[in-house]
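Quick board copy: two proteins, each given as sequence then tokens.
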Amino acid sequence: MIDDLIDAVIDREGGYVNHSADRGGATRYGITEAVARANGYAGDMRHFARPAAAAIYRRLYWQRPAFDRIAQHAPRLAAELFDTGVNMGPEVAARFLQRALNALNRGARDYPDLACDGRVGAQTLDALAGFLATRGAAAETVLLRAVETLQGERYLTLAERRPANEAFLYGWLAQRIG
């Protein structure tokens, strides 16, 4: 599963990009120069290798935030969290999940509210399992919609707060939501 997700992100992000409106600066395959440097790459970003990008995506955006553990219960949700994490940061994606689970727990009757700390641990995984068990077959789809709604709202807010982000808003909504 993760290999296909990584390939899709790399294909969507493309090769070397250094857009003047992008605060992330130079990227290759969607990996910012800062992330590449933090992971040991010292060369020109134009030459950053695809396998190195794939390794970073697997480690920092799939395994470290425990989206691989979510995939065991809700693979479509895990795929969305991975993609959201790549674009907004894994902690933001995890907070979206935690907020959605809290809003959908019927006043903490189905499972306790979670701290929205951006870390997927035992409590978040237990809440996810409780939600899926309680709400039945459509549960993953509903939770996925809730996460995507939060993501879309954040994109709009980013564009409203920083007009330069309007250059990216259409693509974010077209490629990252739904």
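And the next:
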Amino acid sequence: MSKPEFVYTTYIETSLEKLWQALTDGDFTERYWFGHRVRSDWTVGSPYQFAKQGAPTIEGKVLEADPPRRLAYSWDSCSPAEKRERTSRVTFQLEPHGKIVKLTVTHDDLDEGGVTLRNISVGWPMVMASLKSLLETGRPIDIDPRSAVEREAACG
């Protein structure tokens, strides 16, 4: 039986290079990823970490790095050990289409029915919408991701 996966595709009016920078530069991620700042040297095998206000939130290892077209990393939540799920994987595929870039995010190797699957199913669309808004208008979206995830959990 295959593990669940989440796939999200969007089209952003930007360059491959600018989108790659937005995915890998902490100054960028902090602006559109609701205060989460990423840090890594983005070489295969190197660690990366997202932190919010200095507190680690997500960490893992760089699995693939082919600037500016493909990036993949493992995904481990920094939540308490009793809440940890299997290590999952995130892959970003960037494809140029004239003045726009097709961005496909695939998050796979997830636990079926797990908290990570529930959270990223709400979280990735918000993060990608905020990224798209920032690159196209200069402003990220204004939404509280925690309340959206909690609202989805209550309805689901």
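Board note added afterward: The helical segments are 16-24, 26-32, 115-137, 145-155.
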